[in-house]
Amino acid sequence: MIDILQYEGKVCVVTGAASGMGAACARTLVELGAEVTALDVQPIDLPAKESMQLDLMQQSSIEEVAARLPAKVDCLFNCAGIPGAPRFSAIDTMVVNFIGLRHLTEAVIPRMSAGGAIASITSVAGMGYAKHLDKVQELLGIEGFDEARAWCEANPEFANGYLGSKQMIIGYTHRRGGELAVQQIRMNCLSPAPTDTPMMPAFYEAAPQEFMDEHFQAPVGRNATPEEMAEPLILLNSNAARFVSGVNFFVDYGYTGQVFVGDRPGLLL
Q: How many CA atoms lie within 13 A of 71 on its CB side?
């Protein structure tokens, strides 16, 4: 049988590996023969080659962990994230979901050679990012960790937490996907539909479950499982997707298709 994914012996770094999509991703990569370095702010219970505590809210934590990563990294999976209000402030959510993600990613890129790949989890919540493109581009142009945080504090109408952070991941992916092509390093992101992870109850705190199910649930009539998101993410970083870069991959069983043709209200567009 031909192995089109080709993860055997690959060095993979996975953030958010303690639970949800990140745990499913790391666990599957181990089963595929990858050498996995698992990162999370919470304790990790996985048969990874190495596990480290990472706090994406702290620049120092990111840089300390980045310095300890393997000298050569083949794939980075950005799965860590927080749900925003009411559990987390808008600024903290922007920092963890985008600023910290970007800071770690840029620290890992120098450890990658031709054929390297980066895949990040964003959300269908970011699907309307193009209407805020001026703000997206403005924040993308601010490279420093503290400087980016200060920009978010000064622009609360866009840096509003979960929505803003997910829009930024898509914009970051689209821009860096093109820039990294000259190094033959790929970058993509995946936009999940609502998925049954430990984060899902926080979304129901922000909006009633009936509202979420009516407006955002996949047409198949249920939430996804973590594995149903982790496996497409693994595909994006695999050899099977070696000519795929700069893509925001919607994994929602037809939800965005319905929105884009007007068969369903596009509340986020």
A: 0
